[in-house]
Write the structure tokens for this entry.
Amino acid sequence: MNNSVEENYKRQQSRMAYRLLSPSILHYALFFITPLIILFLYSFYHHVPGGIVETTMSFENYKLFFGDAFYREILLRTFVLGLVVTIATLLIGYPIAYFMSISSERTKSICYVLVLAPLYTSVVVRTYGWMIILGRTGVLNDILMRLGLIDDPIQLMYTFSGVVITLVEVFLPFMILSIHSILENINKSLVFAAQNLGASKSISFLLITFPLSIPGIASGCILVFVLSMASFISPVFIGGPGFRVIPTLIYEKAMASLNWVLGAAIAFSFLLIMIIIVFFYNKITSNERWSTVK
């Protein structure tokens, strides 16, 4: 009798949950899923100047994207950009996150403000700021020339390096916060116990703190990697018209060339590649061998 009452109660709770979620699910389905399905169908149509031929469907757009060396080079550049930005943000962000985790509450609060402050400013505004800093007559070149470190201005605008510098600054807070959230929850008594048993601070960090922080590193890396590959503003402004990555290529095909079907095929191919990368990355980083502490 008690089991039947409990089951009825759970069913009522489930129905109530579905009713409460139904407006959000309907909104999500109408304004996100449905346009994606329509765009996916468009990717199989044939493009003609000024329109789309909807009578025949084929994989020609996908064959063109994966078969053309020009598009493959852009795809590789996008992947390398995301990889370089991820590694740079990890190398810069981990020490900052670790410093925050061992600092006093006052110092930690100041660090939080400094890390979160850039997020309150639009990416467009920050990118324009980097255009002023990285230009041939910009702040960075002016400082380096005044210090005598360089004789001629360094070309950073419209280069791969300039885009990397900008994206590292844009996505660094996401890496810091992802790692810091894990470091904060590590049981400090494990570190103290290791040091009491004779381990130095560096050894206890390598054997205790770092392995336990790998979930934060994994989440930060995949977040920054995906955001970097999908970035549009910084590659356009800092990289210039000659610097093409997949997001700028999709915009160029859909808006400039009005080749919506090829743009849709590139977008869905890119989406599938990113899903595969995230899936295998999660498989690798969730392996128990990544952690030496049980």
Notes: The first strand starts at residue 46 and ends at 48.
